[in-house]
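testing teh design pipeline on a random one, pls ignore if ur not involved
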């Protein structure tokens, strides 16, 4: 649960609407997105370090500098370094939370 968060009403829409999210701005100045992905394959670029947590469904990810894909299911997470790219495959759907890390 995110208390005292400000939510941007306008959705972030990617890949012809197959990936959507809403941005929450937390009291401490950090940002979090709550998103949903439909079936498909996607590549995302990062500016900040990201912690992605799957809240429903599953996603298969190929992280930077790794050679094998990893399936991440409900309540599991993975970390993506800042200034990198990662690939995602969705078989059915994935509901997720993305935490943008401002400090290590």
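output:
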């Amino acid at each position: 649960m995110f208390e005292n968060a400000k939510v941007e009403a306008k959705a972030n829409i990617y890949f012809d609407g197959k990936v959507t999210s809403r941005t929450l701005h937390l009291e401490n100045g950090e940002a979090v997105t709550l998103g949903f992905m439909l079936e498909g394959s996607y590549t995302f670029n990062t500016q900040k370090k990201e912690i992605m947590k799957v809240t429903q469904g599953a996603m298969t990810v190929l992280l930077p500098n790794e050679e094998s894909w990893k399936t991440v299911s409900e309540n599991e997470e993975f970390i993506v370094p800042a200034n990198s790219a990662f690939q995602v495959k969705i078989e059915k759907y994935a509901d997720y939370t993305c935490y943008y890390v401002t400090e290590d």
